[in-house]
TrEMBL record:
It comes from the Bacteria. The keyword Oxidoreductase applies. The lineage of its organism: Bacteria, Pseudomonadati, Pseudomonadota, Gammaproteobacteria, Cellvibrionales. InterPro entries: NAD(P)-bd_dom_sf, SDR_fam. Pfam families: adh_short_C2 (PF13561). It comes from Exilibacterium tricleocarpae. This is SDR family oxidoreductase. GO terms for molecular function: oxidoreductase activity. Belongs to the short-chain dehydrogenases/reductases (SDR) family. PANTHER family: DEHYDROGENASES, SHORT CHAIN, ESTRADIOL 17-BETA-DEHYDROGENASE 8-RELATED. Keywords: Oxidoreductase.
Length: 253
């Protein structure tokens, strides 16, 4: 990555931390924000060179302050990975309250817009950049009773396409990654909520889901990190406006 400056949201665990590690291995300088101070401290302990900050990405002023700190410390931003996201409620549409619906949009899509608004002028001044938004394979499979999550992630993909078209002349590439069933704590929490709602077990749900995947396998978080590094690299110089699935060929029927 030739000492490129990379910013990763929700980068202290799961896909985010796996992505941080992959960028560090590629030679990048990395800044991370998260809402979990303990996890941030762990990242800092393992990687003292990483800039860490406690940030609520649903707050536009917090995003602005974080980006300012990163620029002050690193001199600029070349790559952004918008990884922050929440699963939202698992419920029928008529049972979802306002205070359950709104956070999915605050974290999953508003944060992406806030980040773009701050970093785009910086990238234009540097002659270009790469933005990678983490979406979900659920925009394709559309599981039941996940309407806030799916709708907010479709918004992420819409913003990805719109930004790619608008920012292409400035040599800023914008893509989204659609992870499949990622092996980790977050996916297990999601499956647990769905299992409770459906009166089944996590194991049964996982077996059913894998049956719809051609390769019959879960995805490791590092695989998402690998794709992010590729999309940020010169090898992806003319890849923009794409929704790229890393899911083992998920075919929901």
């Amino acid at each position: 990555m030739n000492q490129q400056n990379v910013l990763v949201t929700a980068g202290a665990s799961g896909i985010g931390y796996a992505t941080v590690k992959r960028f560090l291995e590629a030679g990048a300088r990395v800044a991370v924000c998260d809402i979990d101070q303990q996890k941030l401290d762990e990242v800092k302990g393992l990687h003292p060179q990483v800039i860490t900050a406690l940030v609520d990405v649903g707050n536009s002023q917090a995003i602005r302050a974080f980006v300012g700190d990163v620029v002050e410390n690193l001199g600029g931003i070349d790559v952004v990975v918008n990884n922050a996201g929440i699963a939202g409620p698992t419920a029928a549409i008529e049972d979802i309250a306002d205070d359950e619906w709104l956070p999915s949009f605050s974290v999953n899509i508003h944060s992406v817009f806030y980040m773009l608004r701050e970093v785009v002028p910086l990238m234009k001044a540097r002659g270009g950049g790469a933005i990678i938004n983490i979406s979900t394979g659920s925009t394709f499979t559309v599981p039941l009773n996940r309407s806030p999550y799916i709708a907010s992630k479709w918004a992420v993909e819409g913003l990805t396409r719109a930004a790619a078209r608008e920012l292409g002349p400035a040599n800023i590439r914008v893509n989204a990654i659609r992870p499949g069933i990622v092996d980790g704590e977050r996916m297990r929490r999601v499956l647990t909520k769905i299992a409770v709602a459906q009166g089944t077990t996590v194991e049964a749900l996982e077996a059913e889901a894998l049956g719809y995947i051609s390769m019959r396998t879960k995805i490791q978080p590092e695989e998402i990190g690998d794709m992010a590094v590729f999309l940020a690299s010169a090898k992806a110089a003319h890849i923009s406006g794409q929704m790229i699935s890393v899911d083992g060929n998920m075919e929901w029927e």
